[in-house]
Amino acid sequence: MWSWLAVSLASIGAVSGTKHGFIAQSLLYKIFTFALLIIIAMTQASIYEHTYWIVGGLVVSALADTLHTLKRKRTFHFICFLVAQFCYSKAFWLQLSGEMVWWLFALLLAASIVAFFLLLPQLDKLVFPVVIMGIMLIQLSWASGEVWLTSPTLASGIGFVGACVLLLSALAYALNSYRSPIRRSYVWVTGSYFLAHGLIVSSLVL
């Protein structure tokens, strides 16, 4: 309980730093949040192969977020985000057994296509990166959803919600950056981003 309270407070500190433009504060709390999530995953969860993949995703996410906050090596931090999503996806795919449910993939794909065409007029040269990011997030949500459908437990359900929140966080970031500014975007984007990571880690310890 106290560890999750610390994660919540650190996330609030990151959101507050983003709101007021305090880069050092925001970065410090972001790194601290990821560090706490890694400690929780390694100490409070049963250690399986997929646990290491989620921890790897947290480590790479911390690196990606650091580069993004400092606005350095834009291409590299984009690649890091993709690698982090791949790590999370691998963790969920490893938990799968049995046949896949294709209607979930079709539903996620259809929703993503609608979102893509809403953003298309503003994307210009960013079409390719957005498509790649979208594909990674769709298959992440699909993988976590498959785990939930094949093994409908509280933990798998929370993992699926976490993956969906991560997808929505990326969508909110894209809408805020390329279409029209979202009121209090620092709350919706940063807050949902850390909520997604927290939910994914929670799926390990429940």
TrEMBL record:
Cited PANTHER family: GH04784P
Protein name: Lysoplasmalogenase
Family: Belongs to the TMEM86 family.
InterPro entries to which the protein is assigned, alphabetical: TMEM86B-like
Highest classification ranks of the organism: Bacteria, Pseudomonadati, Pseudomonadota, Gammaproteobacteria, Vibrionales
Major subcellular location class: membrane
UniProt keywords, alphabetically: Membrane, Transmembrane, Transmembrane helix
Segments traversing the membrane: 27-48, 76-94, 100-119, 126-142, 154-174, 186-205
Compartments, as annotated in UniProt: Membrane
Highest taxon, organism lineage: Bacteria
